[in-house]
Amino acid sequence: MHSPRIGATIVGLLSLGCSPENARSAATPRQATPMTTATATAADTTTVTADPVGVWRGTSRCTKRPSACNDETVVYRITRVNAGDGLSIDARKIVNGQEDEMGVIGCRLAGTQLTCPMSNGTWHFTVRGDSLVGDLRLPDNTQFRDIRTTRSH
Description:
The protein is mainly beta. The protein is about 10% helix and about 55% strand.
């Protein structure tokens, strides 16, 4: 007998056109997270969208050495700016056990991808369930930072 969560996942996958055999093998807790939604279209393709709104905690590592960059423990507070695809990230770092403001950046959400352009580079993030991973790339596409965070509950 399947647990109710696995059963609900199988029913959801079946409604998207998966066979019972594929649905059983694909039913994992990672696919049953509440942060993503899937909708079937007339062509039976699936569009996945993410809900990055919330608090995320993790690390921001420097990838360009030597530089003035420092590895940091970070807290990102993501909020919606409007009803569309606009988001705002209030970025903070932990210094001596306290949150220190780094700034607020504007972003756009497309599916599971967040893009946050700035004059000195672009932040790219991907929402994967309860993880938000990404990087900061300079205008020449050099990776400057590597970001690994998880949703804070």
